[in-house]
C-alpha cells in the first residue's frame, strides 16, 4: 500500500546507502554475487514456510532451514557446473557454433538477397578471418574476460553462501531492528521482491519461448521434411538468451534464421514469421507476468536497458530490469508515481 509521509533521517540515510551499494556493485563487478545471493535468498523464503508447517521448535526449524539453504546452494552450484561443461563441449561451444554459422552463411550465399550479400564476407574463411582479427585486436580484453569468468564463478558461490546465511537469519530470528537497520531491511526486501518478480517471471517466459522453439525445430519442421542442424544448441540459446528481456529475443532469432538459411530462404522466412508470431504472443505474457507486478511496458524496460548499457556496459543491461522495477517500487511506495 503506497504511503506518503515525511521521511525520517533513518529512511533518507537508507536510500543513500542503498544507492551507494548498488552503484558499487555495478562499478566493481559484483552483480553476479548480488543476483546469486538474491536468488538463494528468494528460494529459501519461498520454501521455508513449507517447513514451518511440518516442523515445530525454533532449533529444529533453524536446522531444517540451514539444510534447505545448503541443498539450494549445492543444486545451483551443480547447475552452474553443468552449464560450464555444456559450453566447453562440442554441442555448446561458442567457437564451434561460430564455425558452423560461417559455413551456413557461405553455403546460403546464393539464397541471400544482393543488398544483404554485399555486407557479408566473401567466404566462410573470410568470416572466420574477420572473427580471428577481431579477437587479435581485442586480445587483452579476451584475456581479461577469461580471468573475469573465473572471478565471476567465485563471486557466484560467495553470493549464494551470503544469501543462504541472510535467509537463515531472516527466517529463524525474530526481527527487532533499530530505525536505520529497519529502513535498510525495507530497502533489501523491496530489492529482493523486484528481483523475484523480474527474474522468476523472465525464467518462465524464456522457458515458454524455448518450448515453442523446440516444437518448431524438433516437431513442425521434421514433419515438413526439414531437419536443421544445431537444433539442440538453438533451443539452449533461446532459453539462456531469453533470460534477457527484449534483447535476448534478437540474439536467439538471429541464430535461428541464419541456421534456417542452411536449408532454404523459404525455411528462414518461415522461421522468422514463426518467431515474430511467438514474440508477439510474448508481449501478452510480459504484460500479464511482469507488467501487472511493476506496471512496466516493454519500451520502458528497453529504455532502461539502453541507458544502463551506455553507462555500465553489459552488466547494466543485465541489471536494468531489476533496478528499474526496484526504483519504481520505491517511488510507488511513496506515492510519487
Task: Describe the structure concisely for a colleague.
82% of the residues lie in helices and 0% in strands. It is mainly alpha-helical. It has one domain.
Textual characterization of the structure:
This protein has one domain (9-333). The longest helix is centred in the middle third of the chain and has 45 residues, at 179-223. The protein is 82% helix and 0% strand. It contains 13 helices and no strands. With 337 residues, it is mostly helical.
Low-pLDDT residue intervals, each spanning 5 or more residues? none
Structural class: mainly alpha
- Give the CA-based shape: elongated
The CA-CA distance between the termini, in Å, is 13 Å
- Total domain units: 1
Quaternary status of these chains? single chain
Give the strand content: under 5%
Mean pLDDT: 75
Count of beta strands:
0
Q: How do the SSEs run, as a string of H and E?
A: HHHHHHHHHHHHH
**What share of residues is helical?**
over 70%
Number of helices: 13
Largest sheet: none
Query: Which value, in Å, is the CA radius of gyration?
Result: 23 Å
Produce the secondary structure layout.
Layout: H1 9-27, H2 31-54, H3 58-88, H4 94-107, H5 114-117, H6 124-137, H7 139-172, H8 179-223, H9 231-241, H10 247-260, H11 265-294, H12 298-312, H13 314-333
Helix pairs in contact: 1-8, 2-3, 2-7, 2-8, 3-7, 4-6, 8-9, 8-11, 8-13, 9-10, 10-11, 12-13
Descriptors:
337 residues, single chain, mainly alpha
Amino acid at each position: 500500500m503506497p504511503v506518503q509521509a515525511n521521511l525520517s533521517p533513518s529512511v533518507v540515510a537508507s536510500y543513500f546507502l542503498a544507492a551507494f551499494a548498488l552503484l558499487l556493485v555495478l562499478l566493481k563487478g559484483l552483480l553476479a554475487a548480488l543476483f546469486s545471493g538474491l536468488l538463494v535468498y528468494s528460494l529459501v523464503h519461498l520454501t521455508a514456510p513449507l517447513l514451518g508447517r511440518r516442523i515445530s521448535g525454533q532449533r529444529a526449524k533453524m536446522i531444517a532451514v540451514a539444510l534447505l539453504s545448503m541443498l539450494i546452494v549445492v543444486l545451483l552450484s551443480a547447475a552452474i557446473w553443468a552449464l560450464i561443461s555444456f559450453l566447453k563441449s562440442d554441442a555448446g561451444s561458442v567457437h564451434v557454433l561460430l564455425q558452423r554459422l560461417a559455413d551456413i552463411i557461405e553455403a546460403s550465399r546464393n539464397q541471400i538477397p544482393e543488398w544483404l550479400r554485399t555486407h557479408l564476407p566473401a567466404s566462410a574463411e573470410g568470416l572466420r578471418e574477420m572473427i580471428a582479427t577481431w579477437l587479435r585486436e581485442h586480445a587483452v580484453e579476451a584475456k581479461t574476460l577469461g580471468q573475469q569468468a573465473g572471478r565471476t564463478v567465485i563471486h557466484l558461490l560467495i553470493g549464494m553462501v551470503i544469501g543462504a546465511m541472510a535467509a537463515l537469519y531472516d527466517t529463524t530470528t525474530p526481527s527487532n531492528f533499530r530505525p536505520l537497520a529497519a529502513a535498510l531491511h525495507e530497502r533489501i526486501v523491496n530489492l529482493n521482491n523486484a528481483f523475484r518478480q523480474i527474474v522468476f517471471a523472465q525464467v518462465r517466459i524464456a522457458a515458454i519461448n524455448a518450448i515453442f522453439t523446440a516444437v518448431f525445430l524438433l516437431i513442425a519442421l521434421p514433419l515438413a521434411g526439414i531437419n536443421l542442424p544445431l537444433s539442440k544448441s538453438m533451443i539452449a540459446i533461446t532459453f539462456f538468451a531469453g533470460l534477457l528481456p527484449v534483447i535476448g529475443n534478437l540474439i536467439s532469432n538471429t541464430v535461428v534464421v541464419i541456421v534456417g538459411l542452411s536449408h532454404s530462404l523459404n525455411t528462414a522466412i518461415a522461421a522468422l514469421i514463426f518467431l515474430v508470431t511467438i514474440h508477439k504472443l510474448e508481449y501478452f505474457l510480459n504484460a500479464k507476468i511482469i507488467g501487472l507486478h511493476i506496471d512496466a511496458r516493454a519500451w520502458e524496460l528497453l529504455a532502461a536497458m539502453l541507458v544502463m548499457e551506455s553507462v555500465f556496459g553489459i552488466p547494466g543491461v543485465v541489471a536494468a530490469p531489476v533496478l528499474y522495477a526496484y526504483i519504481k517500487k520505491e517511488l510507488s511506495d511513496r506515492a510519487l508515481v
